[in-house]
Amino acid sequence: MRLLTSGAVDAARAEAGPGVLDVYEAVQQGDAERAAQCVGKLDLVQRRVCMDLLKKLRSANRGVWTWDNRERLRALAVAGAGCQTGAAAASAWIAARDFTWAPAPDALLLDVLAERAPEWLADVAHRLAERPRSADISYELMAGLVRLSGCAAPTTEAYVHGWVFSHFRGRRMSLIDGLRGDPDLTELVAAFFVTPEVGSYAQFTFPGEPGENTWPEALALLTRDGVLDRPTMVASCLARLLRGGRQMDERMFLRLLGELALTREEQLAHLADWTALAADASSPIAAHAQTVLGGLALDGGLSDGRLADVTRAVLFRTEKKLVRAQLVLLGKVLKSRPAAAGELLPAVAEAFGHADTDVQERALKLVGRHTDALDRMQLAELATAAELLTPGLRGGAAEMLGQPIGEEGELPYAYEEFLPPATEWTPVSPAGATPAEVAEDVSVLLAGAPNDLVTFERALDGLMRQAARDRAALTDALRPVVEAQRWWEHIGSWIERQDSFHFLASGIEIVVAAVLGQLRMEVLHRRVQHTSSGASATRGGPAAVRDARCWEAAHRIHSDPSPFLLATPTDSSGALEAAVLVERLEEYTRLGARVGEMDFGQALLRVRFEGPSGIDGAAGAVAPPGPEGPAGDAQLSVLAARADALGTSHGTRLAQHLRGGSLPAPESHREHREIYRARTVLVDLGELPGLQERFGGPLARLGRPVTPAEPDHSPVTHYRHLLAVLPAQPELVAARLLHFMSGVACHNFAPQQGYLAALAEAPGPAGQAVHLSVAYGLAARRPQDRLEAVDALLVLAARGTLDPERLGADIAELAELTLIKPGRFADGLRAGAGTGAYATVWAILRTTLPALLAQESLPAKALGDFLELGADCAERCAARAGIPELTERASRAGTSRVQNQARRLHRALGG
Amino acid sequence: MTRSLQAVAYHRPSALESGPLGQRLGLETSRGVTPAGRVDHPRFFSGFVTEPRTAAAALLAVADVAAARYWQPQRPASYDPVVTGSGDRLRFESFSGCGGVLARLDILSAGLDGGEVGHGTTNVDVNHPLREALSRVGSDDPLHLRVGPDELAVTTVDGAVIEKKVPLPDRWLRGFAEAQVVACGFELRAELPAAEAVRFLRGLPRAGARGASRGAMWVVPAGRGLRPTTRPVPGAVCLPGPERLSALQRVLRHATALRVYGPAATDASPLAGAWEVALPGMRLTLTLSPDAARGFSGEGGVLDALAGAEAAEDAELVSVLLAWEPRIDLAELASSAGLSVERVRAALVYLGTSGRVGYDAAEAAYFHRELPYDSDRVERHNPRLRNARALVARHAVTLDAEMATVRAKDGHVHRVRAEGGVLTCTCPWWAKYRGGRGPCKHALAVRLVRRGEIAGASPADMPAPVAGAEATIEGNAR
């Protein structure tokens, strides 16, 4: 086994002298030591020749890594480093990525370089130190070069990290002794303060006695001994904390600050730093600065003006702990020096705007204790600030300050609920008029838009229309589109092998393949038989309907293209206007075209019976009743008569369907079930009678009872297609996908973006499964995922289909499940309330709270969150209610958060 | 990735010194462009700022963005901010290392006290001790600000003593310039009072350990505040990569309002937007790219303008007439240039891509500033435009009435179709973005050919495009 050679290597070998060949042989034998000795014997000219050979050898072996060649690569690295003449080239050679896998031993490299001039060595050392840390240059090598050259140590990130870590690794000497003996200690410690991520070493114990074997301790000890300059250390440490950075880093310097044990004079000398840290630094550092400033304030080291400044800054922070500590501190200061009230209390008013009502209350109490010391101007100023208080505290504040809070006209407080505007469905634009336009739609779907309903429907219709008109032109237009997708060449075998679609495929692939003649007729025939019989083993429910439609279209394109499709929806919800369907069927009859059974069945299911006015209340007034508008009862009977007049069996079926009216919602009931090895609440659907009687195949199967335990592979990624199968019955999809939503809440699955909002928007009644889906969504792990559920909740409320009591009961029931974190509900609902929907959220909590108060297992924090949110909502929307459980809880003694918030809510509700 | 190395030189480090008469903040300048041409260490301002604490916090926010990478943050970036003196205001701009966030602090005349503001653009030095000193500015002692060298120092110090070498990737430069062009389509979408602004900005998700999240969120004005939502409902404004607004936290205490500018949401694709915090006498604006993962450089909104020869000539004429105006009056500029307002606007877009004008959404106006980088090179080397020219040079484009066929190197064929002045294509790239990121290279190549730029010949040699379908395309594209 030898390193690979190439023609260039052989040519260079032929020109090389015996000394150079010795080096080459040593490298090929993997003997790094001998290679170093042989290099040592070469003169300058020979080294150039040797370098040329070694460079070629290196490039011949680039990217070839075998275990056997590791030693040879090491030898190559050593020999090459010795032969390089320029400092830049030498450092580039040593740091080359080819050798990171087989690094040369540091001692040998140092040997081979030792004879060079000190300036040259210093140059190499500094160049190596300039490399990023990820280059992983050995610190021992850099330090050895620095020692040989006698130059100053580099202070780069890589070098400082290597230096810090070198005291840990394989050292006999203790940390403190190692540092004491370091000639470059001062410079390196100075660099230590500006190097990122050195804080990660704070957690390690280094060699040495306890009390001096960590970095903060050792540095503090050296400062105490006078080896390091104390004022510089203090200033650098504070400067580092001021600059901020990762928490891990800051911990190191906070500990160092603690070890340095600053005297009162030193603390006083850095007042500006402490103030800035208390205002802007991360929580633990700000807490430390606050302690220091607090100590100074109590012993008179801090002027009232500065204390007021600090107070304003700290009270602006979000951390309750810091804010409360500052209020306690001010309480103490004011107790000892009541005269300072005039300067300090206006600063306390900053807390009136704090997000936490408990903080507001504490601040108000503090102000209340010292109002005597204030003049009228100051009282008026405080009264202005008190407008930020939560409504429940304003009354108390007005009494305390002797001034009305807010402007006269504003009272009584008028509440206005904000809900999002109703969804506007966009009409589906007609299919592309030319093959090129259809090809563009197909291109969009193939590029990855499995959930784009409108483009899919337009493309499907467009493919059918163009295939009927001129299949050759359509084939021409489609060919470049499919060829641009690399996977397309496998499409034929892929479709024949797979029983169902890939979850990222929209299904248009099958139809396109059929247009291009890539599917055999018998395959198409078999599939159509299989899918439209409703016997598919793996797919049921709405997904099977969509599959069957695609196969039917593909089959028709191959055998007898229909002029256009009947089921193409008229708007983006998937609904189809009855008038449009009747026109389409009339056109079919005129042309004598054969009706596709799946197409026709899907068209019937999509017919919209009630206009938005039936469901949407306010939104109905906006929709103009035009020829395309929703059909009323009278219009429906006219349309049914037109359908009857066609005299075809499909015409009769359409007429019957129109007269029969919309399908009744299925019976549903909730069940506790074990799924994904956790107890969850799911919904069973009863039979949908209309479907079983009127349709066959997958459409009839859609009407069968569903228990969530029965897998039907409805892909949630395709939710728009699923919802568009029966647009007026979102319940059918919601119940089938409820197991997924329970996974979102219990197992932290990532929710499907837009799914919940689409469920809520679907133009049909929202039943148990939809409400339960929203409840599960509110318990998603990430706050931005909970927003999905908040959106859905607000949409339901805006449409008037929200049943707050049902959702409230759902939340209370789910909060009992082991795997659900009840605090997330409160957080999600707070996000909803924060948008201005306090009354809606209160309507939900009105049902949830009594149930939660009765739950034994609920964590106190979560209960506190719920009660606080309830109190916020009730205060804002001036709700009035008597809740016996709450009255009982509010009457208990105690000052816990739960008790405080329970009393606050009780008060707000007029109790 | 192509990139160049830029060396900036300063007399001495910028510093904040405390003296008997209060604090003196000296921001050192490097080589810059002024009305007098290229000048070393120009001086733009010497006077007081009216709100020292706010100004210090806002300058820190600008410096934060300059040192940040919001996407794949392995190593901090180290770009110095750019300062522009516009006669009545000072603008400090910085662009994040990831190329997705542009920060601009406008210190308006109300925020400056005494001293004339000069004209010109250059870099200012920002260093560690300066950052620390700026975060210490706490009291409202008067703060003297000097942008440019001290008069005394000029006479005593000769030659540069501080030199910084910064790698400037082409993508970064192109993004810095192009962010302005993206911003010129923005309109005011929402305005929040201080209390609501604080609540909203604090409620945004924080960056995780691995940088900004992928997601974009949308916000809708609701009442006095903004309601977050997950989808672009009507009236919604996109907030792409909300973690990237973290630099605004610094100035939150001093904010008087938050204003949001952006284009109208059309479909579900995320959009760029500008988030402006109003401060006493100042405005701090962060312009965000549509995705944390991609900078402004790939937006391609200007490619049509770049592909034409006319805009380049107009731009040359217009650039001569600019004189560091704080806001460019289009009508006035049009009359002095003898061009129509439309053509001046196109010329300004062109100048924007080479970093020679910026756009201020708050004033809805361009302002003149010349980035102190060699950005001409970049604008010529836009990869998509270069690829399109290569296609034209290979004779890959065949015109056929309103359809055109482009044959790629690997033999794939793409069809480009013109409809209502918009060129659509069947390539997967176009299918993925559907025009959201400008024309694809095939559409650009077709446009070049239709305009008469044929391989090997410069546009000037070519006959004017024939009237008919082509002319309509051009007209509508404007």
From the structure provided, what is the oligomeric state, counting identical versus distinct chains? heterodimer
In percent, how helical is the residue content of chain B? 25-40%
Please list the strands of the largest sheet of chain A in the order they lie side by side.
1-2
Average pLDDT score of chain B:
82
What would a concise description of this structure say?
With 911 residues, chain A is an all-alpha fold. Chain A is built from 50 helices and 2 strands.
SSE inventory with pairings:
The complex is a heterodimer of chains A (911) and B (478).
Chain A: H1 7-15, H2 18-28, H3 32-41, H4 44-60, H5 70-83, H6 87-94, H7 106-113, H8 118-130, H9 139-149, H10 157-166, H11 175-180, H12 185-192, H13 215-224, H14 230-243, H15 247-260, H16 264-269, H17 271-280, H18 283-298, H19 304-315, H20 320-336, H21 341-348, H22 357-369, H23 376-385, H24 391-401, H25 435-446, H26 453-483, H27 491-497, H28 508-515, H29 521-532, H30 541-559, H31 578-591, H32 597-606, H33 612-616, H34 618-622, H35 633-645, H36 649-660, E1 668-675, E2 678-685, H37 689-694, H38 697-702, H39 719-723, H40 730-736, H41 738-746, H42 755-761, H43 768-778, H44 783-799, H45 804-814, H46 822-834, H47 838-854, H48 860-876, H49 884-890, H50 897-908
Antiparallel strand pairs in A: 1-2
Chain B: E1 3-10, E2 15-19, E3 22-27, E4 32-34, E5 37-39, E6 45-49, H1 52-66, E7 82-86, E8 90-95, E9 101-107, E10 112-113, E11 119-123, H2 128-136, E12 143-147, H3 151-156, E13 162-169, H4 170-183, E14 187-193, H5 194-202, E15 216-222, E16 225-229, E17 237-240, E18 257-262, E19 273-279, E20 282-288, H6 303-307, H7 309-321, H8 330-337, H9 341-353, E21 357-360, E22 365-368, H10 376-380, H11 383-393, E23 397-400, E24 403-407, E25 413-419, E26 422-425, H12 428-433, H13 441-450, H14 469-477
Helix pairs in contact in B: 7-9, 8-9, 11-13
